[in-house]
Amino acid sequence: MNFGRLYVIATNVFREVVRDRILFMLGFYIIILATAIYFLPEFAAATEDKMFLDFALAAMNLLGLVVAVFVGTGLINKEIEKRTVLVLIAKPISRAELLVGKYLGLLSLLAVLTTAMTAITLVFLQLGQVPYSIASILISAFFLFLQLSLMTAVAITLGVFTSSLLATVLTFAVYLMGNITQDILQLGRLGRKHGIETLTQALYLVLPDLSRLDVKNDAVYGLAALPNPTTLISNVGYGLLYTLMLLAIAILIFAQREF
């Protein structure tokens, strides 16, 4: 792959998306946190600090997911539907470079969005005099970014061979099921039926285990509640490996498509 062409594609995607969504998302996030920090003390007088931090991290996750899914599913599909993909691949750009470049562009946007929302969260925590562990919050934000990176790869992979609407629905389904894969596996074992257990094991192996990339609840209780460093490193490797596998599948499917 030519890194110069990847940079150009990624930069174009970043510029195109940042104008439309990132400022709106950040403004919406600020409004959410301002509302939460004002009203939470009235509902939870003793635990409002932990509830606010938990709420802020959950809001970061949700807004980042919305961007990753709705933008990711349309990155390639939009080019196919508008037939502009014919112009792009007619130039000295391979299909793999086009897909990876668009992925990196959206990934850059998500990195900026996650960083900005983390900074906003820290400002609100400081203004509200809410006790927190900055290290645990930064670790949580990093794992959130890894999770969004994986979900972006899911969105692009599904968007390569389905419509944008169907890819969006399927990506949200993967996200929801990916957060309960371990529960699905345990449910199959409790059922004591070979067919159900085989199905749940297959789902566990195929679907991403997103719970391994979710440490926001642990961040609420500080560094002491976080998994040990070996587990964290293992989970990072899992997220990266799964993301690379999805991108390889997306490239393979995109290379076989005819327009």
UniProtKB/TrEMBL annotation:
<dbReference type="Pfam" id="PF12679">
    <property type="entry name" value="ABC2_membrane_2"/>
</dbReference>
<keyword id="KW-0812">Transmembrane</keyword>
<keyword id="KW-0472">Membrane</keyword>
<feature type="transmembrane region" description="Helical">
    <location>
        <begin position="236"/>
        <end position="255"/>
    </location>
</feature>
<feature type="transmembrane region" description="Helical">
    <location>
        <begin position="21"/>
        <end position="40"/>
    </location>
</feature>
<protein>
    <submittedName>
        <fullName>ABC transporter permease</fullName>
    </submittedName>
</protein>
<feature type="transmembrane region" description="Helical">
    <location>
        <begin position="130"/>
        <end position="146"/>
    </location>
</feature>
<feature type="transmembrane region" description="Helical">
    <location>
        <begin position="103"/>
        <end position="124"/>
    </location>
</feature>
<keyword id="KW-1133">Transmembrane helix</keyword>
<feature type="transmembrane region" description="Helical">
    <location>
        <begin position="52"/>
        <end position="76"/>
    </location>
</feature>
<dbReference type="GO" id="GO:0005886">
    <property type="term" value="C:plasma membrane"/>
</dbReference>
<dbReference type="GO" id="GO:0140359">
    <property type="term" value="F:ABC-type transporter activity"/>
</dbReference>
<feature type="transmembrane region" description="Helical">
    <location>
        <begin position="153"/>
        <end position="177"/>
    </location>
</feature>
